[in-house]
Amino acid sequence: MVHHTRGGAVPVPHDRQTVIARRLHKDDVHETLLAAIVAGVLPEGSRLRDSDLESWLGVSRTPIRAALVRLEHIGLVEAVPQCWTRVAVARPDVVPALVVALCALWRDLVVEGQGALAPEAAGGVRRALARCAAPLDAYRADPAPDADRCRALVDQVFACVALLRGGDVPDVVRGALDGLESRLRHQAALLGRHLDADLVGAVLDEADAAVAAGDALRLRGAVDELARRTASRCSGPTPASDPWWRS
C-alpha cells in the first residue's frame, strides 16, 4: 500500500514484494529515489525519513543520505538541517529558467542526418510524437487537470525528448541534461491547469515536421521558439491573471 499524505509518513510501498531484496549501490539508491519522485510515487511535500527509506529499499542510512544530498543538488529534494527532508514542492517560478537552459542544450544536440534526424530513426521518433496526442487531448478536455493528468502528458513529451536528443551525448552534457530534465519533469507535472498545452502542441507539431523532412535547421528553430516564448513571458512583471506559461 502507498500512502500519499503530504507532510505525513513517507509514502513508500510496504508490501514486502516491492522491497528491493539486494543491497543497492549508492547510485542505484539515487536512481530509485529519483524515479519515484519523477513518477509521483513520492508526491511533492512528502517527508523523507531515513527509517522509512531504509525499510523500503533495504539499505543502510549512508547510501540513502548520499542519494538525498544529490537529489537536493538538482532540486528534487528540499531540506532543513536537523529538521526535515522532503520532496520538492511546486515552484512554478523556476520552470522558465529550466526550459530556457534545457533549450540551449537541446538545440546543440541537433545534427543533420544524426540522432532523431537519421533516416532509420525518423519513423520511431514520429510515432513517439504522435503518441503525445492522446494525453494532450485529455489534458485540454479536463477543466481541472491534476498532477497525474499533467504527468501523463509530461512523461510522453519527455519520452520524445529522449529520442530527439539521441544517445551520442558527451558525459558532461548528459549529466547536466539528466538533472535539469528530471527537475523540469517534476515541476511541470505540478503546474495543473497552468501548463500551456497550446505551446506544447505547437512545438511538437513543428518537431514532427522537422523530423519528417530531416531538417536540422527547422528542428533547432522549434527549440529556439520554445525558449523565446518562454523567456518572453518571464522578462517582466506578469499579471496574476495571465501567468507566463499560458498563451
Describe this structure in words.
The chain has helices at residues 26-38, 50-57, 61-73, 95-107, 119-130, 133-141, 147-165, 171-188, 197-213, 216-232, and strands at 77-80, 84-87. By secondary structure, the protein is mainly alpha-helical. The chain contains ten helices and two strands, in the order αααββααααααα. It is globular, with a radius of gyration of 19 Å. It folds into two domains: 16-87, Arc Repressor Mutant, subunit A (Orthogonal Bundle); 92-232. Residues 1-5, 16-21 and 236-247 have low confidence and may be disordered. The protein has a two-stranded antiparallel sheet.
**How would you sum up the major sheet?**
2 strands, antiparallel
User: Which structural class best describes the helix and strand composition?
Assistant: mainly alpha
Unreliable residue stretches = 1-5, 16-21, 236-247
> What share of the residues does DSSP label as strand, in percent?
under 5%
Kindly state the percentage of residues in helix.
Answer: 55-70%
Short structural summary:
With 247 residues, the protein is mainly alpha-helical. The chain has ten helices and two strands, in the order αααββααααααα. The protein has a two-stranded antiparallel ribbon with strand order 1-2.
Q: How do the strands and helices of this protein lay out in sequence?
A:
Blueprint: H1 26-38, H2 50-57, H3 61-73, E1 77-80, E2 84-87, H4 95-107, H5 119-130, H6 133-141, H7 147-165, H8 171-188, H9 197-213, H10 216-232
Antiparallel strand pairs: 1-2
Helix pairs in contact: 1-3, 4-8, 4-10, 5-7, 5-9, 6-7, 7-8, 9-10
